[in-house]
Design a protein that fits this description.
CATH superfamily of the largest domain: NAD(P)-binding Rossmann-like Domain
CATH class of the largest domain: Alpha Beta
Number of helices: 8
Radius of gyration: 17 Å
Distance between the termini: 17 Å
Order of helices and strands: EHEEHHEEHEHEHHH
CATH architecture of the largest domain: 3-Layer(aba) Sandwich
């Protein structure tokens, strides 16, 4: 979606909600592509670090220790912990990645996303934006990648795993990542073509 605009993630500031698999690996991939993720969250609250979230620490806290995200602020001096929703934090950023839960963004929060200058929103959770929020994105020209398309990677990787198992193959991480990239690019191309045919 960003590439189709002649843009890239390099140098972008990203706000992410969640601290599960989708959020952790979105943070890692964003960092690999040159972006800076400044928030992650769990059901109690969120971490804000203007210097960038270290996904390895989040991974240690959430996947190994099974702790709360508040622990991050105790380990990283530049991080702040706040109770509540990350979507109520008023900061400037470029990309919103809601990766936590259904209906986590309402109309008021979507209006704040628009005021904060976000140009792109791509859903990693299942239906994290309610209908009123989606209307706000559209009214403000925010490019919107709905979860049905943007979050299809999880289902795609499961299908790739089933293919490997049924054929008794063993693909490398790089091979799976390349297959996934092709699948996601195809989903985007089909979505873009459908959008152009409507307008």
């Amino acid at each position: 979606m960003i590439k189709a605009q002649g843009d890239s993630l390099a140098g972008k500031t990203i706000k992410i909600s969640g601290a599960g698999n989708v959020a952790i690996y979105a943070t890692q991939k964003a960092e690999e592509l040159g972006a800076k993720v400044v928030t992650v969250s769990d059901s109690n609250g969120y971490i804000y670090d203007p210097h960038g979230i270290d996904y390895k620490i989040v991974k240690q806290i959430k996947e190994v220790e099974r702790g709360r995200i508040a622990e991050y602020a105790k380990r990283v001096s530049t991080a702040e912990y706040h109770e509540g929703s990350v979507w109520d934090l008023d900061i400037k950023y470029d990309v919103a990645l809601p990766c936590a839960t259904q209906n986590e963004i309402d109309q008021k929060q979507a209006e704040l996303i628009a005021r904060d200058g976000a140009k792109y929103i791509c859903e990693g959770a299942n239906m994290p934006s309610n209908a009123a929020a989606i209307n706000v994105y559209q009214e403000n020209g925010i490019l919107y990648g709905p979860g049905k398309a943007a979050n299809a990677g999880g289902v795609a990787v499961s299908a790739l795993e089933m293919s490997q198992n049924s054929e008794r193959l063993s693909w490398t991480f790089e091979q799976v990542d390349n297959y996934l990239k092709e699948i996601m690019e195809d989903i985007f191309a089909q979505s873009e073509a459908a959008d152009k045919s409507i307008t």
